[in-house]
């Protein structure tokens, strides 16, 4: 996104902080909105990405630079972009169903363990993370173990939701790493358009094979799908990409950890969904562990 001028004399850093607050609110709405939408999880995942790709299409068509960039993509970059789209499809295909099986708070906490899986994948490629990263990972994994034990006591269905959310976090790690590589040579808008389009196409095929209805919803459901796309997919993630240049990756990443308590609070107020009391220490451990991992990585 283009850099916005300061509003009414508001310093740029304060404007970035305000925009980051809006972005965190947008992504925090994602889990509760999905849980409250009366449509199949796979269909929600498809429409979320299809609407986002449709919103980006006019931007790509009207900007000659973007059209030229996409037409000149080499084979490797194109294949990596398609692979990122496949990883994002796996992320949504696993995470969204989990929101109907376990609590919003548990699902969001587990899917945001992406930094841990990113670190492990980098380790497999030869990178040696500092000891503080492993310490933070151990704290977060301990939280995961405690949380899954709590949810197993609630029901086997909740435990299955936990497993899907963890799988969604792992798929997101693959998506993040591929995206970082592709955007060395490709603009964010061009890459995002390719990625969302690929994700939507793959999820469409999955929906057709699974027999998930893609229409026949009420007007309220369509409004929630539109709100999900605008608040979480476009507004939330676009503003995050916008402010990270000014505030830095460390501040932005730490702020995004507020998605877990934010989603839990929204789910409690809007849906009346409260996690078991024993789950709160586990959620705290996960957030603390992720904070330690991010802090160590940025340092």
From TrEMBL:
Keywords: Membrane, Transmembrane, Transmembrane helix. The chain crosses the membrane at residues 45-66, 78-98, 104-124, 131-152, 158-178, 190-215, 221-240, 252-271, 277-294. Residues 18-148, 160-294 form the EamA domain. This is DMT family transporter. PANTHER family: ACYL-MALONYL CONDENSING ENZYME-RELATED, EAMA DOMAIN-CONTAINING PROTEIN. SUPFAM superfamilies: Multidrug resistance efflux transporter EmrE. The lineage of its organism: Bacteria, Bacillati, Actinomycetota, Actinomycetes, Kitasatosporales. Belongs to the EamA transporter family.
């Amino acid at each position: 996104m283009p850099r916005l001028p300061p509003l009414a004399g508001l310093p740029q850093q304060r404007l970035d902080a305000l925009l980051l607050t809006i972005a965190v609110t947008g992504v925090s709405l994602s889990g509760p909105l999905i849980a409250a939408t009366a449509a199949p999880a796979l269909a929600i995942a498809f429409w979320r990405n299809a609407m986002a790709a449709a919103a980006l299409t006019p931007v790509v068509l009207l900007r000659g630079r973007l059209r030229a960039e996409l037409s000149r993509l080499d084979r490797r970059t194109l294949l990596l972009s398609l692979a990122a789209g496949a990883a994002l499809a796996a992320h949504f295909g696993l995470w969204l169903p989990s929101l109907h099986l376990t609590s919003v708070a548990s699902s969001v906490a587990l899917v945001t363990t992406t930094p841990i899986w990113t670190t492990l994948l980098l380790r497999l490629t030869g990178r040696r993370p500092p000891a503080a990263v492993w310490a933070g990972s151990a704290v977060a994994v301990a939280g995961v173990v405690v949380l899954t034990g709590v949810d197993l006591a609630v029901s086997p269905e909740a435990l299955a939701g936990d497993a899907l959310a963890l799988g969604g976090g792992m798929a997101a790690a693959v998506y993040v790493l591929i995206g970082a590589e592709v955007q060395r040579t490709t603009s964010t808008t061009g890459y995002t358009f390719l990625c969302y389009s690929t994700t939507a196409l793959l999820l469409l095929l999955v929906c057709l094979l699974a027999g998930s209805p893609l229409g026949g919803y009420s007007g309220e459901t369509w409004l929630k799908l539109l709100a999900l796309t605008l608040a979480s997919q476009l507004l939330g993630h676009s503003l995050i990409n916008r402010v990270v240049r000014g505030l830095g990756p460390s501040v932005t990443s730490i702020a995004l950890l507020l998605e877990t308590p934010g989603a839990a609070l929204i789910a409690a107020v809007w849906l009346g969904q409260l996690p078991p009391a024993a789950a709160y220490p586990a959620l705290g451990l996960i957030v603390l562990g992720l904070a330690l991992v991010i802090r160590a990585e940025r340092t």
